[in-house]
Amino acid sequence: MLSHDIHVHTIISECCHEPDATPENYIRLAKDLGLKVIGFSDHLWDSAVDGASKWYSTQNFDHIMQIKDMIPVDTQGIKVLIGCETEYCGNGKIGISPKVAKQLDFVLVPISHVHMKGFVLPSWMNTPEDIANTMVKYFKDVTNFDFITGIAHPFYPLGHENIDGIISCIPDDVFMECFSMAAEKGISIEINACHFPSIKGVETETYNDETFLNMFLIAKAAGCKFHLGSDAHSIDVLPRIIKLQKIVEDLGFTDEDIHPIVTDNAIKNS
Ligand SMILES: [Zn+2]
Ligand SMILES: [Zn+2]
């Protein structure tokens, strides 16, 4: 499979505290790892859109565009894409305008930053059923936007214990309905390192590598295209993309399943 990672955070993201996490260092390591495409996806809330949380308010388009001056001229044969990870808060509230979306190579939208209580998720909401239903609703909502490229870490409920419990609240036919909507709109489904706990090398009782397997196979059957993301917030984490690629290839995914945001750019590059 064409090696790529289009979910990478740099020091531009407020949650990235590693001074080493510069585009230059990532690109050097990406070269060593054999990646053909790397996409930077720093957190973004567009100033043109009202309602940013305090945390998002400084992370506007001008802020993330600082990356342009940080990318070396020689990218060592790797195609570098500049994108973002924005936010979806329900009721049609998305943290990016079509105008800004057009200026980026790609736009990732999460539907599951449910740890942002009182912003993404109402603060009273906490049961596995509520969280599962909210993610399903948000997933369907974001397929209505025609300026988004992909959904970041779909259905991975950030900051929640009992991930198995939450995912088991979503029946296969509901997954199929969601992924069919994404497939119809050409929205890429992200396979993120967080979906497979073995990649981190830590044992967890809240979910295992099987938890999301069925979901991705349903997405493939629905006709979705995919991209991979390490969600690295430090350069040490980037190598997880290679373990993720191995898992995905073992599942039977090939270049045919990869979204054009990756494959088209790689072809232009070669
Ligand atoms: Zn995220
Ligand atoms: Zn991220």
Q: What's the short version?
A:
The protein is α/β, with parallel strands linked by helices. The chain is 34% helix and 13% strand. It has a single domain (4-269), classed as Metal-dependent hydrolases (TIM Barrel, Alpha-Beta Barrel).
Which helices and strands occur, and which strands form pairs?
Elements: E1 4-8, H1 23-33, E2 37-43, H2 54-57, H3 61-64, E3 79-85, H4 98-102, E4 106-110, H5 128-142, E5 150-152, H6 163-167, H7 172-185, E6 188-192, H8 197-200, H9 213-221, E7 226-229, H10 240-250, H11 260-269
Parallel strand pairs: 1-2, 2-3, 3-4, 4-5, 5-6, 6-7
Helix pairs in contact: 7-9
This protein binds zinc ion (ZN) (2 copies).
Distance between the termini: 15 Å
**Which CATH architecture?**
Alpha-Beta Barrel
Kindly name the structural category: alpha/beta
Overall morphology: globular
Instruction: Compute the number of strand runs.
Output: 7
Q: Catalogue the unreliable spans.
A: none
Estimated share of beta-strand residues: 5-15%
How would you characterize this protein structure?
With 270 residues, this protein is of the alpha/beta class. The chain has one domain: TIM Barrel, CATH 3.20.20.140. The protein is 34% helix and 13% strand. The chain is built from eleven helices and seven strands. The protein has helices spanning 23-33, 54-57, 61-64, 98-102, 128-142, 163-167, 172-185, 197-200, 213-221, 240-250, 260-269, and strands spanning 4-8, 37-43, 79-85, 106-110, 150-152, 188-192, 226-229. A seven-stranded parallel β-sheet has the order 1-2-3-4-5-6-7, with helices on both faces. It starts with a strand and ends with a helix. It binds zinc ion (2 copies).
